[in-house]
Structure formats: C-alpha cells, structure tokens
Queue: 4 jobs
Job 1
Amino acid sequence: MKNLFPAVLASSVSLIAAMPAQAEVKLEVMHHWVAESEAAALNVVREALAAKGYGWQDSAVGGQSGGNMQQALRSRLASGNPPGSMQFIGWEGIDWSAEGVMRELNALDEANGWEAAIAPQVLPFVKNGDDLIAVPINMHRQNWVWANKAAFDKAGIDQPGTWAELIEDGAKLREAGVIPLAMGDEPWQIQVIFDALVADIGGPEFYNKALVELDSEALSSDTMKQVFDTLRQVRGLVDDGFTGRDWAVASGMVINGQAGMQIMGDWAKGEFLAKGLKPGEDFLCFATPSETPSFQWLIDSFGMFKVTDPEVTKAQDALAEVVMDPKVQHDFNLIKGSIPARTDLPVDDFDDCAKKGFEDRAVAIENGAMLGASAHGFASQPQFATVFGDVVAQFFVSDMASEDAVQMLVSGIDNAR
C-alpha cells in the first residue's frame, strides 16, 4: 500500500495556511486629545496596551474641551453601539454611570489597591457610591501663566505679583510689538481665566462658596463684580483675531513670540516641550497672581462601557491596568505636561514647572486651597457649570456691564436649581 502520510501532511499544511489568523482584539477608545503633545502622550498608553496583546481603535473627537465628544457619545449610545472605553472629565463618568451604561472596576481595584493611591479630592469623580467606575491617569493644574521669556525680556517685565501688575505688563508687551495675551473665544477658555480671578481676588473660601456651593450672596457680591471688572481689563490684552482660535494655536503664538502670555492649564506646557523649549530658558511658568495661591485641579480618567463580547471586556481590564500602571503614568505625564494622578509616584525627573506644581499642590492641600476647576466640570454640577460658561462668554465678547453680568449669573443659577 502506498504511504499516504506525506500527501495528508501536505494537505493539512495547505489548509492551515489558508485559514485566517485569529483577529487581534481591538478596543475602541473615544477621547478628545488631538493636539501634538496630547497625541504623543496618548501613544504611551496605546503602546502599553499593545504590549498586553490588545489593539487600539482610535476615535478622537476634538473641540469644545470634550463637548463635541459627548455629543458623539450620545448618538452612539442611542444606537446601541457604545465604545469600549472613553476619556472623561468632570462629572461625565458619574453621570453616565447613573444611566447604567458603565462597568464597575471593583475587582481590579481590590486586587491592585488603586483607591489608596488616588487623592481623596479625586474620588468623587471616579466613584459612584462604592463602585469605582473610572481610572485617573493624570492631574492637571489649570491656573497657570505661560510666558515667552524673550518677549518678557524685550518688554522689560518680570513675573507679576498681582493681576493689576499683569495687566500693566500687558500694556508694556503691546508697546514692544507683542500681543499681550493669546487665547480663543471658546467659553471654556474664557472661564479658565474667570476661575483664576474668582480664586485670586476672592480667595479659596470665596471660590468654594460661589462656584461649588453656589451661594447667592457670594454670586451677587461686590467681589464678584470686581472679578468681572478685572475680566474686562483682561479682554483688553487680547488681539481681535481670537475668534475660533484653538487653545493649542494660542500656545503656538507664545512659543513663536507672537504673543507674550497664555493663561491655560499645564497641558499647554506639553506644546512647549514638544517644540524643544526649556522652562526658565525659553519660557516661564507661574501661577496666576494671588496673595492666597490656589491649586485649581482637574483630571482625565478612562471609564469602560458595558459590552457583550467577553474578549472586549478583557481588553477593557487591560486598559484599566495600563492606565494605573506607575510607569505609564510617569511616561504619559512627562509628555502631557501634567503630574501623575497616583499620589505615590515621585516627580524627581520631571521639568521644573511640574516640580513647582507638585510643591504647590502640597501647600494647597495644607492650606485648604485645592480647588476643583469649574471650567472643566470639577466644581458644580453640569447644569450650573453651563451657566457660568455662558455668562462669562457673553460678557467677554460684548460691552456688558459687570453689574448686569452678576445679575445674569444669579438668575441663571436660580433657574437651573
């Protein structure tokens, strides 16, 4: 009888070769990081997920500080097609968890001791009751000033000690042929400045009363009028081309010396670092001026939606582990401009601005000056935060009087209660 083994073996090999390889499980991640430094930082997470054997399906939706992404998510959920994971800021993750569409990550939390490494101020934004529903990757400080050192030297100015000095310095920058302040007209960009003014002029206690507790007396006070009066002076430092300008474009204006300053969170620093600039040599970083400095914080976190595919669930677990990995948080934040969300990680090899932020955070915790950034949803609930954004934006682009702005603010908050 003829030996059939070689023929059978050859046939089996051909059949195996013809079969498709097992498809890589890809996790779709929605986010709004589209700037150069943001994309570079996110690549740290992507590569770490790949090292665990999972692919990354990128769904980036830029604009409106995540507002456009939230609209896209609503459409996805309405059609029964949730992404695997999503970047959250403010109350977003908690609100979606209340809708019953988020997974809880309690087993992973218990196995890895994550909660003990998360700052207490952050927990209300990543936990719904006893359930951990998101994992934070960073902590940003919002109330920074970024300045072009050469422009400051040209105008003969130093770091201002008060808002009055900052505004005077702006006039000197203009005389030197430099746009004093670079920014866009998006409500959240304007509110970044408003938040800083509320804390710097009124102090941390006033900030909490007005923007967190929504105290009517604080909202209608002379201090709040002073905040709007100062915001009007700040408007005088901005060029007429600010309509529709993205925050990263404004950062670029400071980087290239077209503008002297930008008031923006430390994600802007990522743009400076991406261009090879060095703090202290090429650009300056300092907190918005105040007698009682605060640390206005915000975080980015990742939550996981309920899915039916068990392989996607495993990929979600892998992403959560990646986000909370100490090395990933270290490498990500070095690029992003922020500091790690984990409180058990050192920043010894971070840049001088990050080290200053780390030190300022410790002082703010001691002085009760850790303030959730209202502009990014870490103060009042969204229905109230929207009122602040709307009123501040209308005031900034019009000739509205501060008294009228305060009245509109009080009425808007009352109507939203």
Note: The first strand starts at residue 26 and ends at 31.
Job 2
Amino acid sequence: MSTGSRNTWEAWARSVPPLACVSTREPCPDPMATATRLARAGLAGQYVVYEADGGVWHFAAGSDVSVTADTGGITARAAGRTWTSRTDGRPLAAFADALSALRDEDDEGSRGEENAGGRHFYGWAAFELAHLLHADPASAGDRPLLHAMVPSVEVTLGADSTVVRAVDEAWARKVADLLAEPAAGQSSTRDEPVREGTEGIIAAGSAAYGRAVARTVGDIRAGLLEKAVVSRKVPLPAERHPDFPATYLAGRRANTPARSYLLDLGGYRAAGFSPETVLEVGDDGRVSTQPLAGTRALGADPAENERRRAELLSDPKEIHEHAVSVRLAWDEMAAVCSPGSVVVEEYMAVRPRGSVQHLASRVTGRLRPDTGPWDAFASLFPAITATGVSKRAALQTLARHEDGPRGLYGGAVFRGSTGGALDAALVLRTLIGTGDEAWLRAGAGVTAQSSPEREIEETCEKLRSVAPYLRFSAD
C-alpha cells in the first residue's frame, strides 16, 4: 500500500499491461447485438458497451485495472496490487492525475500502443461530484464519485471492420470464439417483457414530485435561481430482477439517442439511451457540448408530432428554459477555451429522442494550451440540462427538494483516451441498478412559468423512452 505522490501513479501505470494483441476482422452485420452478446458472456468482472458517434459500438471488459475516487481518497489497482492517495476534497484532480500517468507511459514509447490516440479507459462520474465542483462539499457524501476501468480487452465494432485489442492471446481467443459463433448458435436472452402496465410504473411518486415542483417554483419566484431540473425516482419491484442486456437491446432498437451504454462497472449496472453529451473532446483539443432543454412528446402520428414541434418552438417557457441553458454552456466553455473560439454552431433545432423531442443546440470551442479534457469536464459537469441555472443555486435547491442522492443519474458515462480525447454521455433515460435495487429516474426543467401538472407529464413522457422496454429475468 502506497501513499500519494507522482511516483505512486507512475508505478501504477507501469503495472498496466498494454493491449499487445491486435486483430482485424470483417464487420458484424448487427454491431449492437454483437456488443450486447459480448456483455452477456461474462468475460470479466466489469464491462462496458459504449455507442459512440457515427454508429460505432465499443465493448470493453476487465477487472484487474481500475481507478476509484471519493471525497477523501483515491484507489488504483493493477497486477494484483493497490495504490492509494488522499484527494483532499479534490477527487477529480486526483483522478485526472492518475490517468495522466498512463499517458506519460505512452509518451515514453515503451508501451508499443498500436493506436495513435493512446490507451482507452471507460468509466462513470456520479452526480454528487457536482457538489464538490460547484456547491456544498458536505452534500457530496462518502460514496465513490468517479470510477474508471482500463480494459483487458476492447472490441470496436464499426461499419467497415471489427477490431479486437487484448492484453494477451488468451483474451484474444475468448473474444474471437464469441465473434465466430454463428447467429443460430448464439445464446438467447431471457427477455420476459414487463407485465405491469407501463403507465402504472411511470406514475409512481408523481404526487410527491408535483409538490417538489411547486416548492421549486416558489424558490425561483423568490429570486433564488432561474431554473432547476427537478427529478423523481421510480423504484422497480424488489422481487423482479431486470435483465440489463435484454433491456438495452430492446430499448436501443426503439430509441434515437445521442449515445447509449450498457455497463456493469464500479458497483453500478446501467442500460441507457442518453439524449445528449456532457462534452466531446477530440485529440486535437476541439471541445463541444450539446445542451437539450425544452420537451414535447413524440409518438406514432406524424401530424401530431409536427403540431407538438411547432408548439415547442413557440412556447415561451420552453424557449426561455433552453436559452438560459445555452447561455450558461457558453460561459462554461469560455472558461477553458481560447478567446474567440467559442461559437454556437447549432441553435434551437428540434431533435427526436425516443418518446420525446427536444430543443437542441451545440456550443463548440478550442481548448487553451494550458487546459485539458478534465478541465473542460470540471467546467461543464454536470450538464446544465440536469441541474439548472445557476448551477450552485440549482444544486442547493435539488438537495432540498429531491428524494435523496441521485448517484449515477444526471452524472456521466464516459470513454476517454490517453491521447486527450474524452466523450461523456449524460446519464438520462437509463435503467440503473446497484445491489438488489433497480430504478428509473426522470426530471423536468422548472422555471417561474412551470406548473406541477405539466412537469409531471414531462417526466412521464421521458420515462416512456425506457419503461416499455424493461425486460426481466425469467427466474
């Protein structure tokens, strides 16, 4: 056991094996299903499926190499050893320092990494990290706030090829055998559909939520803040056991997310269909964020969808909610980007996202030479559209009016590289589980013009992106 220093993370990084075995195969006809099947195979103690931009799916698995940080400390594991350090209330900085040691190893040229972007890592950030970054540190709690895995095997499923990277031949063979299975020989999922009515599931807790909305409107009218995204938790029956891979596959086929993910990682299980990214950082330092705010239902009737779209584009409450989100996104980008580089590339488009349609904008910029991807993450996290304006006041309001900590909901699932790239999906429209508990959660942006009835309706509209596709194990 070690204590914190630069040498600590250098020793940890030297213990992380490179993905030395690389092979390229023909593309899979259904990369989504293939990635889900790899997840179900139980190759390792932790796994992630991450759908990136452009219809590319990544599968990563491992259990030996990880980094976990909370308010007080950070723990890194590799090669059967453990390294620890204090975080002194700055877990994100400690987390970034540990991962940067992997980059330093790459830069030395001793790793032989085959991809110019460096080694990849996958992880999550809990919503409560926001309290350390922007509000009251005492509200962050003592649970893990950040977790990342450096995989032993990574499979990239693209339109042109399937690329397998593994630490050794044994791992490569395991994945190759699974990929070689004919479709008829693949193990079937046990995907018993949800029997309870979907509307009954999503209505749980709506009355208490309406009261929380009313209290929040009171805070806004009293001048404490402009907007807060108040959410409600929908627990699933304790006697039922969600099948996360089957839920992911059914839900992803019915949704139109910006990103999607399926994971069993660092104590959380999740199957989600994220409507937006918290941030996207390229190896070249280009950074963007994608605030979505303003919502109407999206159904099977094109004429009704168009009517709701027109209503969305003309509703003063929705336009105000969206505009203040874009304004704050601009300010947060400007804090880490080169002067003059921040622009709004898209403003108030309407994007379909499963059972709803949103007002959407995109703000982009170029990172300053003295900033990096985690500086951008610290500025932009959590997404404005999951907190409110101002963030500090909104976080304080949510701590008063929501039912307990959010955990993964409203946080981020991310894929990054030692080359400087970071892609972080906002955790919304997600089935979440930990231990024997599983739940859904949804929120709505509350402003001075909000009514409890409409915000309850909006949470139901969003829950319909997930609830109809819940699948449970047969046993």
Note: The chain has 13 helices and 25 strands.
Job 3
Amino acid sequence: MPWYNNDYPPSYKNQPVEIRDKAVEIANALLKESASEGTAIAIGLKLAREHFAKKEADNNMAKLMGDHDT
C-alpha cells in the first residue's frame, strides 16, 4: 500500500519530518518496483537516514573548507 498525505508506516512515527518524508518517497518507489511492504519500509528508512547523514557531512565539510578560505 503506498503512503501519502501524512499516512506513513507506524515505524516512521518518531522520525524527524524530513527523514520520514524521504523514507516514504523511497518506500513508495520500492513498492512500485514490486518490493514487499516490509522490505520497502526498512530500506526506505535506512536510505533516508543515509541520505541526510551524507547531506550533513557534506555541509560540514563545506563549512570547514570555507573557513580555510578566510
């Protein structure tokens, strides 16, 4: 079952909004590719967390590099 409009799996309930929204986006894409619901939920959350961890690391690196320019 695809999730939309603040309808999401219970395991996403306590996640930050940006992670939850990205996880739902990923899980829905996996469902379209015939993944099982449980697999889509787990992988969606894992990949969403990784996405934002990488984004945060990239931002931190950019800040560090910017500090050396001054």
Note: The radius of gyration is 15 Å.
Job 4
Amino acid sequence: MATDYDTPRKTDDDVNEDSIEELKARRNDKSTSTVDVDDFEAAEGLELPGADLSNEELSVRVLPRQADEFTCMSCFLVHHRSQLAGEKNGQPICRDCE
C-alpha cells in the first residue's frame, strides 16, 4: 500500500480532540460571530483594475541626484557610488547590471 508522506499525521491527542461531542460543543460556543472592521477599512484603500483615477493627484517629492549618486545606464536607476561597478562605453554601470 502506498503512503502519502505529505498528508499531516494525527497524534492521539488530535484524534481525541476531534470527537463529535467536542465539535458540537465548539459549534454551540461560537454562536455569535464577530466582524473585524479593520479588514473592511483596509479593503477601502484597494483599487480595482480599470478604476477611473483621472481625478486623483499623486504628490511625491522628487529630489535631484545627489553628488554621491549616479544613474546606471543599463537599468536607469539612481544608485549610491558604492554600487558603481565600472563603466561600459564611458557610461556608469551598477553592480546589479554588470
């Protein structure tokens, strides 16, 4: 007979806990359900694909490139000088793109 080793194994304690009487008692104890309001509040901030965002504004403060930063000419991201791997054709390249 083949054994499925991925299935969870039940110990004697688990078998005793799952008796019908205990399951019925748990069901009766949970007669009232509570609603977590935080889940609803978190869902309000989500946007669905195709939502109309034409009247929304995005306000982000953009800082110019600092003296100790460079723009990688492969990925076009601004990195700190410590990430400079070298230059290809006179253009700075970061360690990730090297």
Note: The two ends are 54 Å apart (CA to CA).
